[in-house]
Amino acid sequence: MPRRLLDSQSSRLWVLDVDSGDRRLVLESNSLLFEAPNWTPDGRDLVINGDGRLFRIAVDGSEHALTEIDMAGVADINNDHLVSPDGATIYVSSDDGHLYAIPYRGGENRRVSNDRGPHFRHYLHGISPDGATLAYIGLEMTADAPRTNVFTVPSAGGEDASLTDDAWPDDGCEYSPDGQWIYFNSERAGTGAGHAQLFRMRLDGTGIEQLTHDERVNWFPHVSPDGARMAYVSFPPGTLGHPENLEVILRLAEPDGAGVRDLVHLFGGQGTINVPSWAPDGRRLAYVDYPVG
């Protein structure tokens, strides 16, 4: 079931200049809980989800209303979606557990993911720079516990490739702009349950490197289009998973994890920057917060 706002809570969509610190409010709603902004490659629109549906809105404020994107035939979606490099397609994760390709300006939708059984669900996070391959988290319900691992699949459809195959919780897998790395968060080096840190690995799953080493819980690494820096959301120590309605920090670092600095302290978490959220210019970042009162 799609998330709903709490009493006296609102959703606010911001665009932040990461160099100057200036930010601009694009959209605010006290009725629709929206999440996870993507930019279109031309820099004109932001794409968000809300109430199981998909919307776009002009970045410059020339259109103050949301425009719904047609997803006919696709069940409600969650906040794992992204725009193809050519801007023609939006890939989404549906509540039926599968990945779909949605034409941005209308057309026939198609399923991308394979049927891996009733106990397996797909959660989309990344697309290769050439648009040919999707990176997703596969969640498999086993007799012992849920397992989450990193997979890839051709965006046109085809055979899956498993990049991790272990019991450590992994999430947020996303390609670097040069196509050489997949960034992700994982508990594989954690000091306790839920202690996720940021990592990257080669496209075949080898050469895993740990990028952050602190007491906070770090999720959803997004490398800027110019490859110069990495944004992520940092949860308080001891957080399990990536829940909503917490005091979190948006942080900026170099792609290897060095030079960490705080960008914004906000009330949010889940839905704030779950998906690639850099502007094409590599200077601005879109995010959502959820203030109460």
UniProtKB/TrEMBL annotation:
This is Biopolymer transporter Tol. It comes from the Bacteria. SUPFAM superfamilies: DPP6 N-terminal domain-like. Belongs to the TolB family. InterPro entries: 6-blade_b-propeller_TolB-like, WD40.
